[in-house]
Specification:
This protein has 401 residues and is of the alpha/beta class. It has 2 domains: 3-138, Rossmann fold, CATH 3.40.50; 146-338 and 391-395, Dihydrodipicolinate Reductase, domain 2, CATH 3.30.360.10. The chain is built from 14 helices and 18 strands. Strands 7, 8, 9, 10, 11, 12, 15, 16 and 18 form a 9-stranded mixed beta sheet that branches. A 7-stranded parallel beta sheet has the order 3-2-1-4-5-6-17, sandwiched between helices. A two-stranded antiparallel sheet has the order 13-14. α4 (89-99) links the parallel β4 (79-82) and β5. α1 (11-21) packs parallel to α2, α1 (11-21) crosses α13 (342-359) and α13 (342-359) crosses α14. The model has no long low-confidence stretch (mean pLDDT 95). The chain binds NADPH dihydro-nicotinamide-adenine-dinucleotide phosphate. NADPH dihydro-nicotinamide-adenine-dinucleotide phosphate (NDP) binds next to α1.
């Protein structure tokens, strides 16, 4: 009997609990909790209809540690899967320590009042989790998540050392709307408006946001412009694979998306500091989120594919080799299976698979771990079986961009 508590009834949480319910031999008892219980109930109804499994639901404000501890104890969960927002990571880790259960998330902690994401806050929990004999898995989505497992698998099976890594994230999906983000708009806009940063020769190199553009031919999608960005797995990969000379992250954006974000930024709508409006403090970016389309509702409208992977160069027995490892995922196929678009799907499925690694006893060492520190093999096998098949090919040489 493996009981799990999932926190966060958004796009990702919905996919994760559908996939958990499809694997009831691993997840025998599932509770979904979120601030708004009706969202949990809607997802539970869909799980019942699509999969025939009953899941439990609860209202929870995860910022309230005592309430989270009480719910963990009430459910008897041995693992909490945090699919709420990055702001809740530390309080949910605190609750897990207090309740004596394991922890997993898909995004690193960010303070709400500062667009700054780094692992230092969560890595600071290393000793607490070790001493408690508990496991915390950080970043079990696609990126971070699968992209780090891909790197670990390449290092385990194809290369002795990694010299450079480029992570390429392409969403070739089209939802027909003039502007919509494909996951939480607040988190997405904070990420894309942050200055770009990549790792090169032992230091971080910074450049203005959306400044460095390269056209790349993505299999299953076609040619797309991708932009150099900062992404959190660059920090953990360069820490845990110290031999890496260069690590970069690229994401595709269409011209219309860039134009909208530029205008919103220029007029102050992406600000995260409070402004007074009619006698009340509001955060412009949070207000913007309230008027933008809900990413969870985009599934029925989105057509096309995502293509996310790593191009990795390193050496094997003294010979330089380059590998491209990736997954291509179809928005419409995801919607047909679980009622969500591919961005939620490519995050929710790895969250389920990471949780399965903990519950199956594969990832149980006490402490706080990033995905590239863990054995990749069963996770990679499960990707192939549970909707995110991957391919690996050897390229003629390192990337030329
Ligand atoms: P959504 O905004 O769709 O969902 C977030 C959910 O969290 C909402 O249902 C919200 O509840 C709930 N929530 C927020 N605050 C609290 C709280 N204090 N207590 C309890 N529940 C809360 O986001 P997504 O599903 O798109 O994303 C979920 C997570 O996945 C985010 O952290 C995101 O950064 C991460 N992510 C990771 C990716 C990866 O590849 N690693 C890719 C995409 C996303 P309510 O609606 O009731 O307010």
């Amino acid at each position: 009997m493996s009981k799990v508590l999932v926190i966060g009834a958004g796009g990702v949480g919905s996919v994760a609990v559908h996939k958990m319910a499809m694997n009831s031999e691993i997840f025998s008892d599932i509770t979904l909790a979120s601030r708004t219980k009706s969202k949990c109930d809607d997802i539970a109804a869909s799980v019942k209809e699509r999969v025939g499994v009953e899941i439990k639901t609860a209202a929870l404000d995860a910022m309230d540690v005592a309430a989270t501890v009480a719910l963990i104890k009430e459910t008897g969960a041995s693992l909490v899967v945090n699919l709420a927002l990055p702001y809740q990571d530390l309080v949910i880790m605190d609750a897990c320590l207090e309740a004596g259960v394991n922890y997993l998330d898909t995004a690193n902690y960010e303070p709400e009042d500062e667009a700054k994401f780094e692992y230092s806050w969560q890595w600071a929990y290393q000793d607490k989790f070790k001493q408690a004999g508990l496991t915390a898995i950080l970043g079990s989505g696609f990126d971070p998540g699968v992209t780090s497992v891909f790197a670990k698998w390449i290092k385990k099976h194809k290369l002795d050392t990694i010299r450079q890594i480029d992570i390429l994230d392409c969403n070739g999906g089209d939802n027909g709307l003039p502007f919509a983000t494909n996951f939480n708009p607040e988190i997405n806009i904070r990420e894309v408006t942050a200055e770009a940063r990549h790792w090169e020769n032992g230091e971080w190199v910074t450049s203005p946001a959306m400044n460095h553009k390269v056209e790349f031919e993505f299999e299953g999608v076609g040619p797309k412009n991708m932009y150099l960005m900062y992404h959190e797995e660059l920090e953990s990969l360069s820490t845990h694979f110290p031999e890496i000379e260069r690590a970069r992250f690229w994401m595709t954006f269409g011209d219309a998306y860039i134009n909208h974000v530029t205008v919103l930024q220029n007029i102050g709508m992406t600000r995260i500091d409070p402004v007074m409006y009619e006698g009340k403090e509001i955060i412009p970016l949070q207000f913007l989120k309230a008027v933008l389309p809900n990413p969870g509702d985009l599934g029925a409208k989105t057509k096309g594919k995502t293509n996310i992977g790593d191009i990795i160069t390193g050496s094997k027995d003294g010979v330089e080799k380059t590998f491209y490892i990736k997954n291509i995922c179809d928005h419409e196929a995801c919607f047909a299976e679980v009622g969500s678009q591919a961005v939620s799907y490519t995050t929710g499925v790895p969250a389920m698979i990471g949780a399965a690694q903990v519950l199956k006893g594969n990832w149980t060492e006490a402490g706080v771990w990033n995905m590239e520190q863990l054995d990749p093999d069963d996770f990679m096998d499960m990707l192939n079986v549970h909707g995110l098949p991957w391919t690996v090919e050897e390229l003629d040489g390192p990337v030329s961009f």
